[in-house]
Every structure is written in C-alpha cells, then in structure tokens.
Amino acid sequence: MNSERxxxxxxxxxxxxxRFTIYLIMLQIIxxxxxxxxxxxxxxFVFSATVSFSQHFSQLATPxxxxxxxxxxxxxxxxYDLWDDPHRSVRRLILKLREQPGVYAESISNHxxxxxxxxxxxxxxxxxxGRLDPEEKTDAxxxxxxxxxxxxxxxxxxRDLQKLGIPVLLTIQIDSVGFHDxxxxxxxxxxxxxxxxxxxxxxxxxxxxxxxxPSRTSILGNFESTYVFRSVDESNASKAxxxxxxxxxxxxxxxxxxxxxxxxxxxxxARRPQP
Length: 275
Known about the structure:
Layout: H1 2-9, H2 14-29, H3 33-47, E1 71-77, H4 89-97, E2 103-109, H5 113-124, H6 134-138, E3 142-147, H7 149-164, E4 168-174, E5 183-184, E6 188-196, E7 210-211, E8 218-225, H8 239-245, H9 247-252, H10 255-270
Parallel strand pairs: 1-2, 1-3, 3-4, 4-6, 5-7, 6-8
Helix pairs in contact: 2-3, 2-8
C-alpha cells in the first residue's frame, strides 16, 4: 500500500504534466521576450484548468501583526508548483522553520508576489493603523528565498520592499531562473546564491549575483554544485521532472544544498542589530 502511494505521488496527472512540460520549454526561451509573449496564450489555457489551486491570504498561517522581535521567512516555489506541495524542498524547509520559536514562515507561489507583499505589510503593521510607520519598517526582520523562478521572485520582492523602505536580512537563490535576478538591491543586508551548470541540462541557474551597493549588501557567495558524478534521491519527483529537469531537478532535491540554505537562514535569524 505504501509503495502504491509513493508511486501515485510521483506521477503527475495529465494536466499537471502538461504544465510542467510547458514550464520547461519556457525556461529554455525565457531570454527571448517575443517568444515568451507568444507562449502566454498557451500557458493561460493550460493553467486555467487549475485555477482552484490559487493561493489566498486566508491560507497563510502567519499572525498579522507579528509578535515583536519575530522573523518572517518567505520561500517562493519554482515553476507552477503548488504552494503547499509537501514534496517540494521549499515547502519542506518552511514547515521545518515553523518549529523554531519566534520564526514565522510561509511558502508562496512565485506568481503570487502580491500575496507576499500583502502579508509583509500586515505582519509589520504592529499598531494596526493601516500604514507602515518608520519604526515598523526599521524593526522588520524578513528573509526571502526561492528556487528556480522562485529565486527570481525573491529578488523581485526584495526590490518591491526597497521601494517601500523595508529592509531585508537575507536573500537566498537556488538555481535561480528569471529576469534581473542578478542584482541584489541595497535594502538587502546579505545574499547568497546556489546554482548548477551541468552539461546535458538545459536549465541553468543564475551563476553570479552582485550587490547594487557593496557597502550595504554582503554577497556571501556564489556556490556551484554538480551532479555529473553524484546522484540524488529523486523519489519525490515526478517522471516528467526526472526526465526533463536533469540537474535542475536534482538540485531542487539535494539535501546538501538545502542544509546549507537552512544554516544560512538560522545564522541570519541569530544575528541581532547592535543596540
């Protein structure tokens, strides 16, 4: 019975298999904006069958406002992964972080950045007056991370927070794919990047990130992984992911990478501003 359940969990229904296949195709052509626009109509048709899976504010577990001194961690999933998919490494890490006192964590779909901003605004509004006062912004303790398209979403969200005058403790990108995700905005205190550029894998993450203002942002590293001679347990991946994802899929499931991501988050949480 257990083996049957595992087999079922690793096999996508036809509509989700189609979604993932189109996602992979888009990753190959993402640098060509014209072709990307042409693909949008097809995407809208395929994804319209799964509108019911859209994420809503009522599904978030974080209290608003946050208790004083709390840290809010937001992880963005890649592709069109469901925000609460227990097989995705972003979601698994979020659930683990929730076990830590004073830490509130949410996994959010990369195409629901507006939801992340809504959560942050409400979480920081400690006096509940409907706007963020200077003190509320200064006291913010926010960490953003994401995988694949989620990595780009984390940086885009940090850029949105910069416009609002809200600082970010840390951003982490895992095999990040997207536009303008190589420049870390100056409201981010520290940033780290993990990526792979393996041969025979057509999806390659951002190889290098840099600070818009090195005097305000520390780049902790651009760390490359390879899976040419190293295997990863892919039992939680669908057949489509295993066949088409290559090392991009392996990195999403690599416990070595995610243990390092977790440690960077814990280190950032432990650091407190000097009085």
